[in-house]
């Protein structure tokens, strides 16, 4: 009888632990969805400060052009004229996947977005800072249907060759 009681108690503790972990992860996922959704709304409404408040100090934005890799200050400088003229972008999330580190203080995601460029993919990393999720890294990519990739390769071939020569000259060794 003692073994039965002990096993029941252990089972309840295990179930409670799993439930609490699951609830914590679900709460984190909800918080991340809210953060990312609001971040997209902030840029659409040209709310410069609120948009950048959702990013970490070490934020990096990688754009669709091969030359677009900006730290937070560079991206703010690039974006400011668009915000000032209220000519920002409006990206609406269609689908999102979120993944967590074992410590639950780092998350990464990928999302499909409805944009002026058609469907794009965003991906990135968030870090938990002072109890809030901050966007630390964001990559925006244009999606290309597999059957159209050869056309796109041909369109960008000339510019890619110039960039490739520049990058090869200073390649990581």
Would you kindly provide a brief summary of this structure?
Helices cover about 50% and strands about 30% of the residues. By secondary structure, the protein is an alpha+beta fold.
Total strand segments: 6
Q: For the record, what CATH class applies?
A: Alpha Beta
Give the overall shape, derived from the CA principal axes: globular
Q: In CATH terms, what is the architecture?
A: Roll
If you average the pLDDT, what whole number results?
89
Q: Would you identify the regions where 5 or more consecutive residues have pLDDT less than 50? A: 12-24
The SSE order reads HHEEHEEEEH
Measure the end-to-end span. 68 Å
Tell me the domain tally.
1
Computed CA radius of gyration, to the nearest angstrom: 22 Å
What characterizes the major β-sheet?
6 strands, mixed
Helix-residue proportion: 40-55%
Approximately how much beta-strand content do the residues carry?
Answer: 25-35%
Class by alpha and beta content? alpha+beta
Number of helices: 4
Question: Can you describe what's shown?
Answer:
The longest helix is centred in the N-terminal third of the chain and has 43 residues, at 2-44. Helix content is 48%, strand content 31%. The relative contact order is 0.12. It has one domain (2-167): Nuclear Transport Factor 2, Chain: A (Roll), CATH 3.10.450. Strands 2-1-6-5-4-3 form a six-stranded mixed β-sheet. It has 173 residues and is α+β, with helices and mostly antiparallel strands.
